[in-house]
Q: What sequence folds into this?
């Protein structure tokens, strides 16, 4: 029991420390007022989530929430893979094969926000990550369906 309490305290402390460092860097760049407003908005939204979790917990659709969280984490993975592939291209560790036909359809802001770049290597890496995500989903689903009840 003490180990779980220590683990919970350590993870909570680490997250708090990380948030403080993050906010301090923004405070140095933007001054205090925007950071204060952001903290207040974050606290209000966290309070809403706390009320939903602790008051209405019997009526919350936990399964749908977990599925949505999984989909969002999959999207974050695709962004991270695209960004990493682009960084490796910038460091000349991966070749860069541009797709001129696709570059007219992919707006420049999609690279900044979603790490979608019109190159063969970045799109192939993101495609392989998507296949891995979907493959693990269907493998887990078939495993659950095969279990005897």
A:
């Amino acid at each position: 029991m003490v180990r779980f309490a220590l683990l919970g305290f350590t993870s909570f402390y680490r997250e708090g420390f990380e948030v403080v460092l993050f906010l301090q860097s923004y405070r140095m760049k933007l001054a205090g007022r925007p950071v204060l407003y952001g903290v207040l908005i974050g606290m209000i939204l966290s309070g809403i989530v706390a009320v939903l979790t602790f008051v209405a917990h019997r009526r919350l659709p936990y399964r749908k929430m977990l599925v949505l969280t999984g989909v969002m984490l999959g999207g974050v993975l695709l962004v991270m893979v695209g960004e990493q592939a682009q960084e490796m291209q910038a460091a000349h560790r991966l070749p860069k094969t541009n797709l001129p036909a696709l570059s007219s359809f992919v707006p420049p802001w999609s690279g900044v926000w979603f790490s979608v770049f019109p190159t063969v290597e970045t799109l192939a890496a993101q495609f392989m990550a998507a296949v891995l995500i979907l493959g693990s989903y269907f493998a887990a689903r078939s495993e659950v369906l095969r279990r005897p009840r």
